[in-house]
Every structure is written in structure tokens, then in C-alpha cells.
Amino acid sequence: QAFPLPSLPRKQPTVLVVCGPAQNGAIGLVCARHLRSFDYEPTIFYPKRSPDPLYRDFTTQCEKMDIPFLSYLPTEVQLINDAYNAVVDAVLGAEGTEGTEPCAPILATLKHIRIPIVSLDVPSGWDPDSGGPGGLSPDVLVSLAAPKACARSFLGRQHFVAGRFLPFDVQRKFELNPPEYPGTECVVAL
After folding, report:
1. How many structural domains is the chain composed of?
2. Closest to 120 measured CA to CA, from 163, 78, 85, 170
3. What is d(CA 92, CA 124) in angstroms, rounded to the nearest whole number?
4. Residue 1 maps to a domain
5. In the predicted model, what is the mean pLDDT of the chain?
6. Which residues are within 8 A (CB) of 65 and not within 5 positions of it... i.e. 6 or more apart?
7. Considering just the CA atoms, what is the radius of gyration of the chain in Å?
8. Three-state secondary structure along 115-180?
9. pLDDT band at 1, cuts 50/70/90?
10. CA nearest 32: which of 114, 90, 115, 109?
11. Which pTM value belongs to this model?
């Protein structure tokens, strides 16, 4: 529910959503659905699909919304720069490392693009606790639930948190102090 973000202009509403095989990839599929609902034109690259039934359902929902899936990620970064307004990084998040296949070649390509990267929760290639030299350098970070420790290393243009949905007992247990969400907003800029 982190979209539309004010940082994504609609002059060219095309967005490439790059999904990894685990939970962050599933979040990317949900993100693509939301983008489509807000009149963006998402395209998904999801090279290693999870056998998890829930993830398969998310994939089916995207297909039924006529969201196209790429069969390969162009290695010529200029093709990506010309075709899309932004890239959503849902490759690894907090659950993986850069060497995870097929993620390493994907991240190698994404490190060279010039259009904005929006990372979901933890930028791919980053350690959730210590940050990420060598990982992606996103322009926008959307922290899910609460910012992870690595967010202290984030140097991009905008940082958002999408966590209004957290139950109060979870907030107390982890001593979270969520920001104030104006009106019915589910996302707030930090």
C-alpha cells in the first residue's frame, strides 16, 4: 500500500518490479497490483517463482490484472532506463544475500541503471542490521512495519514507512514508536 509515492511522477507511469524468490518477491507482486490500481503500468520480472501457494496466488492475480511478466531482464541497462520510470527492488530484502541465485546477475544489472530505484523494506544486497556497502543504492526506501537498523545507512532522497497496520501488542513488544499517519494514509515520509 506504499503507492502511489509522490516521488514517482506520472509523466511516464511505467515501473519495472523486480521480484526475488522469497517473501520480498511476494511483497513485490502485491506492490505491482497496487501500482496497477493507481494507474501505473507495472511490468514484473520474476525469474525464480516460488512454489508457495500464496505466492502462486499473487502471481495469478497479477496475470489476471494484465500485468506483463518479462521472460528475461535486459543486461543492456539503457533499455531499462528508456522503458521505465522507476524500478521497484523486491529482490532480496531482509531474507537474502547477494550471492543467492538468480539474484547476483540481477543486482549486477540494477547497480548500473540511472532511473530511480525504490527498495522495499531492506535494499537488496544489504544486511538488515549493518547496511550495505556493495548492495543497491536506492533513491527511495519503503520500510515495512518499521525501519530496520540498516535504514540508518540509507542516503537516498526519500524514506517512507508503511506500518499503520501493526497491532498495538506488536508495537509494545518491540518498543516501536510509529509515526503519526495523517487521515487514512497507510504510508508516511520520515
Report:
1. 1
2. 163
3. 5
4. no
5. 85
6. 33, 36
7. 16
8. CCEEEECCCCCCECCCECCCCCCCCEEEEECCCCHHHHHCCCCEEEEECCCCCHHHHHHCCCCCCC
9. very low
10. 90
11. 0.88
The answer to whether position 119 is within a domain reads yes
Does residue 3 lie in a domain region? no
Measured CA to CA in angstroms, residue 85 lies from 40, 81, 107, 121, 130 at distances of: 10, 7, 18, 20, 30
- DSSP-derived pairing of the beta strands 69-70 and 41-45: parallel
Name the nearest CA neighbour of 24 among 115, 102, 116, 122: 122
Looking at residue 81, which CATH number applies to its domain? 3.40.50.10260
Pick from 17-31, 71-85, 133-147: least confident: 133-147
Q: In which residue are the cell numbers 530511480 written?
A: 116
Closest CA to 140 of 37, 11, 44, 15: 15
Q: Which domain holds residue 14?
A: 8-189
Q: What is the pLDDT of residues 99-112, one digit of tens each?
A: 566 778 888 999 99
How far is the C-alpha of 59 from the C-alpha of 98, rounded, in Å? 24
Residue 2 belongs to some domain of the structure: no
- Return the number of other C-beta atoms located less than 10 Å from residue 185's C-beta: 12
**Contact call for residues 2 and 162 (beta carbons, < 8 A):** yes
Which residues partner with 161 through β-bridges? 143, 188
